[in-house]
Design a protein that fits this description.
alpha+beta; 2 domains; seven-stranded mixed beta sheet; three-stranded antiparallel beta sheet; 19 strands
């Protein structure tokens, strides 16, 4: 496998197969005008069939339909889905038969129970100028690949609809605030291990923990650019690295797309729903500093709230008593609300690695 082959396949896939990634809407379950986007809805199916890109000049995606047509002869458990996915065929004139190297590939979303829990509350993802990692992290388990074939794995994000939202704190719900802002530059995030053999991809969980979200339209770090207060649907793509010299001709048949509706989210610069904040703190290992310290971090007979906390903690950590500060707190302790914490255990910002 030559570098030129991989580069050629990447360019062909990005230019041809993902030409309609920036189209607004196109996803079943998008909120109707004036409807509460996080109102009750039926549990989403685990995955949807991939769809081939519409032919050049073909009409755009119809409302509540994927912008791609379903793959013919897909062999995974999501083949020929009923309901919303069944309308894929109307989006393109001629469905493209997928290459056997990708037709049998299937994907399992990891941490699905956690994603479902966030989805029920209305998932929010922080976007910053510098870029912020997603939590929950998008992780999948792959099956059905050719062990000896080369594949690239990548993700992109498409708008759920053409609306902008605001959070109503008095009712703890999201409301439509108007039309969507101008579309952000469409970007694709390639997994850093791409390309790799199918055997390597299948032997372990694939994690997109390097992916970062930003609202900086001038970002030059390759982060995914999103508009704050807009809803997005992550998509996962498996691309077969075709060794043929004219592989760009087969770009549309050499990839397969998977959509997990429970991973959709609203991009925000600060969490709006306090229940989302609580769930992120409780389930994110990098937010440990926001939680009460573990019992092992405190002397056995001096838990948080025990008295006298300051002097007991200081003596247990340092045989030499620390000088008392003018406000009565001992050196090395900082005020956090109504508690006093060791400076080393002060609540950190959420992970921004």
């Amino acid at each position: 496998m030559h570098f030129s082959t991989v580069t050629r396949d990447m360019e062909a896939f990005t230019a041809s197969s993902l030409s309609s990634l920036g189209a607004a809407g196109g996803f079943p379950g998008a909120a109707s005008p004036g409807a509460d986007p996080y109102g009750p809805r039926e549990p989403p199916p685990p995955r949807y069939d991939p769809c081939a890109a519409a032919a050049p000049g073909a009409p755009g995606p119809q409302p509540h339909a994927y912008p791609f047509a379903p793959a013919a002869g897909a062999a995974n458990s999501a083949a020929e889905p009923e309901g919303p996915g069944a309308s894929c065929a109307a989006a393109a004139k001629a469905p493209v038969k997928k290459n056997a190297k990708v037709a049998s590939v299937s994907v399992q979303l990891e941490m699905k129970a956690l994603w479902d829990e966030f989805n029920q509350l209305g998932t929010e993802m922080i976007v910053t100028k510098a870029g912020r990692r997603m939590f929950p992290t998008f992780q999948v388990k792959l099956f059905g690949m050719d062990p000896m074939a080369d594949y690239m794995l990548l993700m992109d994000f498409v708008p759920v609809d053409d609306k902008r939202y605001r959070y109503a704190f008095h009712s703890s719900s999201w409301l439509v605030a108007g039309k969507a802002d101008p579309a952000t530059p469409g970007r694709v995030h390639y997994h850093p291990d791409s390309p790799a053999k199918g055997a390597q991809w299948m032997k372990q969980i694939v994690s997109f923990d390097k992916l970062k979200l930003t609202n900086n339209l001038l970002d030059d770090n390759g982060h995914i650019i999103l508009n704050s207060m807009h809803r997005y649907q992550p998509r996962f793509h498996v691309v077969y690295v075709d060794p043929r010299k004219d592989s760009e001709k087969y770009a549309e048949e050499n990839f397969k797309t998977f959509v997990f509706e429970e991973t959709r989210f609203t991009a925000v610069t600060a969490y709006q729903n306090h229940r989302i904040t609580q769930l992120k703190i409780a389930s994110n290992p990098f937010a440990k500093g926001f939680r009460d310290c573990d019992p092992e971090d405190w002397p056995r007979n001096h838990r948080p709230g025990a008295l006298p906390l300051i002097s007991a903690f200081a003596r247990s950590r340092n045989p030499v008593a620390s000088p008392t500060q003018p406000n009565g707190a001992e050196k090395g302790l900082v005020a956090e609300g109504s508690r006093l914490w060791p400076a080393s255990l002060r609540a950190p910002r959420e992970d921004t690695r």
